[in-house]
């Protein structure tokens, strides 16, 4: 029993499993696909979420992040733009919010893996310069204080916010109940 408990405890820290089959929200269209993980590292559960991005031709990590932000009305992000490219500043999603400008000594760290099962590697390129390949996974994780970057944890699939689904359902019902013109 102790052996099983130890494996269960270590599992989330040693396996960085991201499955494309788990993705519920996709941005873009095309034959290539990449996954995007955002980990708020804020003590809330869940703290890490998963989206998908599809494209044809060439695309960067920045293209994927901006497309996902545009596609998910519950997700917002702000960017700082420098001569060398964009930097992620603030991300807000379903009650989570982290900003490197509001938290001195902390930042959004950028991580990559090629298949979602290998260990995360801290990206040696910024999101504006990273060219995506089919099957890539990009991860953003908010650091601990004193700039201690941590890789993303295993995410849960992002889903449309309940308010949007309820509003959409109500709109469909209202449209159905309209009397027909005579």
- Number of discrete domains: 1
Q: What's the gyration radius in Å?
A: 19 Å
Residue fraction in strands: 25-35%
Number of beta-strand segments: 10
Low-confidence stretches: 1-15, 164-176
Provide the structure class.
alpha/beta
- From the coordinates shown, what is the CATH architecture? Beta Complex
- What is the CATH C-level name? Mainly Beta
Measured distance between first and last alpha carbons: 74 Å
Largest sheet: 7 strands, mixed
Order of helices and strands: HEEEHEEEEEEEH
Measured as a percent range, the helix fraction is 10-25%
CATH topology: Ferric Hydroxamate Uptake Protein, Chain A, domain 1
> How many helices in DSSP terms?
3
3D shape: globular
Mean pLDDT: 83
Can you walk me through this structure?
The chain has 182 residues and is α/β, with parallel strands linked by helices. The protein has a single domain, classed as Ferric Hydroxamate Uptake Protein, Chain A, domain 1 (Beta Complex), CATH 2.170.130.30. Helices cover 22% and strands 31% of the residues. A hairpin with a 7-residue loop joins strand 7 and strand 8 (121-122). The longest helix is centred in the C-terminal third of the chain and has 16 residues, at 162-177.
